[in-house]
Every structure is written in C-alpha cells, then in structure tokens.
C-alpha cells in the first residue's frame, strides 16, 4: 500500500470522526440525568437524604452542586459612600460544571422615569453627567455588583448592573438610591421599576431606540446612551464584558431603528415640545400672539440649541434673549445660528431679562431653583403677565412660582399633551422597531451564552490544526519537492477542510436557543470524544468591571 494512499485514509478518518461528532452533538442529553439532577439538587438544598442514586448521576450532581460557593462576611460593610449593616454574603460566580468557567451574571436595571415618577421625585436622583462614572464606580465597589453604569437625564434615572446574587445586589442598589435621594424606602420604592435578564436587555434597547422616551423617537437619548457607554467603557470605567457588549448593541440598535424605520420622522424633542406648548398656550395665558411675545432663554446647553432650532423655524419674535453664566457657550450658540438674531446676557442680567420677557424658557444644570414665588415677588413686573416653561431636571423654576401674581409655569411633565399628538403618527414605526429589537435581543443572548464555550472551541480548533500540520508533514515527506505555490494551495485547502468540518460542532455549541443544561452536556461530550483534556477556564475572554479596574490600578502602579 503506497504512502499517499495511507495519507488519504488518514484524512478520510479525520473527516468521518468530525462528522460523527457533529451529528452526536445534536442529540439531547439523557432525560434521566436532567430530571435526577434537578430533583436531587432540590433535595440537597432542603437537607433531605439522597438515596437510590447511581454513581454516574452522583458524579454529575456533585459537579452541579459545586457551581456556586458562598463566602460569609460578618459585621457592617463600608462601601466608601455609606455603610450597609451586616452580615453580608459575597457569592462567587457560578461555574460551568464541564469547563469550570465563571458564567456571566444577570443584567439588571433599576430606575425611575416619566412613566413611574413625577419630576419632583426624579430631580432628587438627578446626577450631572460629569458624575456618572464616579457614582457607577461606587456601585461597582459593592460586593454583589460586578459591573455598573448610570444614565441620568431630565426624564429618567437608571442604574444598570450585572450580578449573580440578585437579592443582595438589589439591596445594595436600594441603599445607594435611598442615600442619594434622601427618601425612605416607602417613599422611593413605589416610583421605581425593576427589570432583569431578557426584560432588562429589552429595556436598554428600547431606551436607546427612543421607544421609552417621553417624545417617542427623539434623538437626544441616543447621544446620552452613547455617553453612558463611553464612561463605562473607559479604562477606569465600571463596565465589564457584559455591559460593554450590551451598550455597544444598544447604540447600534438605536441607529438601526432610526435609519430603518420612520420613527424619527416628524419626531419632536423635549425642547421643541416646550416651544409648541408655549405657542399653544400663549393666547390663553397671556392674551397675545406668539409672534409678538418677547422670548428669553436661560441656559446655553444642548437643550437650548434644540429649542433655538425650533424657534428659528417658527414666527417667534427676534432677537432671542439668551442668558447664561459664561459668555463662551452663548457665543458658540450664536455661531451655530448665523441667521438668528440673538442678544447675549450673563446671569447678573437675568432678572432684568425676566422682567422684560413675556415667555421665559429655562434649561440649566443648576441643582437649585433659579426662580421661585419669593424671587418673583422681590422683582415686581408691574402687573405684566409672564409664562415660565422649565425643561430642566432638577427644576430651575420652583413649583410655587405659579402662585405669584400674573405668572403661569409649566414643567417637563406638562408637555405630554403636545407629545401625545405626535406619538399617534409614529405607532406603525414603533411596531417595526420592536421587531428589530427582538432580533437584537436574541443575538445578544446567544453571544452571552457562547462565552462559556470559548475555551472548548479554542481547544477544538487547536486540536484540528495540530492534526492538520502533522498530516501535512507526513504527506510532504512522501510528495517532496512541492513548489511554494503548491504548498500554499495545500495549506489553504486543508485549512478550509478543518474549518468546514468544525463549523457544525461549534455552531451547535453557540446556538442561542439551547438551554444551559443541553450546552453543558454537549461540552462534556465534545471533551470526551475529542480527548481535549482539562479545558482551561482562563482561556475565556471574560472580565467584569471590578477586574478591569484592578488591572488599571496595577498598570498605574507599575
């Protein structure tokens, strides 16, 4: 028998072995193992004796029961921001019983929004963007939280985190929220929403797509989600692999929804809704036409830019009187709108401008009200009526301002009548967006599940490559004298054969529809069939926010 013929037989054997493995992986694990594992695990947790169990099932069960280890902590726990009363338990991440890989935790979202809480409650949790990263780091320092992020806008405050021990993590987040808001549990809890797992992923994607916004389809929220992703993804940010991936998906989904559906067509922003509300109410409240009303705007940030964009497209009276702490932002704003007449004023001229204005819009980052009943009475208007439209959170116009004589005041929550009229026009686009989001959720869940398979897949590829190289070395001894072109062709063809043969088994491992127990069974089967040996759990590309920060500190120390 010739050597080339032997080499061909070896390749054929490899081919048949891999095909057999691919077919074998599609089988379901024995039902007895699954049911016994579940039943016996329940008995173990409840302290019941395990009887009439075969040695094989005992081995499988013991591996399952070793997945989670708990380390007890006693006494109070200092988080660096406040103290949580003890005792506390830190739960080590569950591990895949086959590979020993630490499995990723569950995604959680806790927060409040215009759907669940009035602006008077939302403002108590509002955090300027400059503080998002620091506050997320405080959350991430808590023992049960592995990754964390914060998003705070005028209409929502949300905490995103990854954890294995949901109960403990929720307690830690609630302590953080109570400390930040100054509210007791019974005051705060009714205003909050809680999502975990698939519901949490769905919520994040709906937020970035503008489906959960006060103004459905508005574009500003996508920029805010991008900023949240940027803060969390920094070297000193608190995102790990799970939140990092989720927010990348959220940003790309937000872009897809806006480009592939009509949801942003005709959409209004909070700022344009405020201008429309003033336009609707000015005759009723002030007895004048909108085109005759003198307008002042306090603040020169992004919300003001959007407001000026809308006012410039209407018959609003010019010049627009802009008031801000510093002149630099106002001058940049004026440069953006060369065709809009603007009069720029610093804060020391604020009351002079309010006194002369008919309509005042406020949108600043001030943590305390700029206008109140008391300050209005200290600056009399000689019977002139005034409309205040505040789109800030925390509020710039105190709630008692409307009690001052001749003053009407509107806040963010008063914009709903304008927004609802626009919402109906985009309901078909909302349904299209929801279908798109479902596909993105399925892909993300599949990616998350595939993390446990990475080391096994890597070892399978390495084994296939080692076999390929050995067989090629044997073939070259027989064939001899191959030109470089022939050698390159053989390399390409044999690599292609290995890749195609391994594609089936690897696809089955990554199947997002598979249940965890079935994936574990496939991993164990593959480990035995291909004699992969001990799979290295550290080969997984997986990290959490705490590990990332530790690496950053170690690098800085070096």
From TrEMBL:
Species assigned in the record: Lotharella oceanica
Domain Glutamyl-tRNA reductase N-terminal intervals: 110-261
Pfam families cross-referenced by the UniProt entry: GlutR_dimer, GlutR_N, Shikimate_DH
Superkingdom as given in the UniProt entry: Eukaryota
Xref: PROSITE patterns: GLUTR
SUPFAM superfamilies, alphabetized: Glutamyl tRNA-reductase catalytic, N-terminal domain, Glutamyl tRNA-reductase dimerization domain, NAD(P)-binding Rossmann-fold domains
Chain segments carrying region Disordered: 30-53
Comp. bias regions, Polar residues: 42-53
Extent of Low complexity compositional bias: 30-41
Protein name in the entry: Glutamyl-tRNA reductase
CDD domains, alphabetized: NAD_bind_Glutamyl_tRNA_reduct
HAMAP family registered for this protein in UniProt: Glu_tRNA_reductase
Family to which the UniProt record says this protein belongs: Belongs to the glutamyl-tRNA reductase family.
Ranges where the Tetrapyrrole biosynthesis glutamyl-tRNA reductase dimerisation domain occurs: 432-532
Domain annotation Quinate/shikimate 5-dehydrogenase/glutamyl-tRNA reductase: ranges: 287-418
GO annotation terms (biological process): protoporphyrinogen IX biosynthetic process
Entry's EC annotation: 1.2.1.70
Catalysed reaction, written as an equation: (S)-4-amino-5-oxopentanoate + tRNA(Glu) + NADP(+) = L-glutamyl-tRNA(Glu) + NADPH + H(+)
One term of GO molecular function: NADP binding
Pathway the protein takes part in: Porphyrin-containing compound metabolism; protoporphyrin-IX biosynthesis; 5-aminolevulinate from L-glutamyl-tRNA(Glu): step 1/2
Record-linked Gene3D superfamilies: Glutamyl-tRNA reductase, N-terminal domain, NAD(P)-binding Rossmann-like Domain
Alphabetized UniProt keyword annotations: NADP, Oxidoreductase, Porphyrin biosynthesis
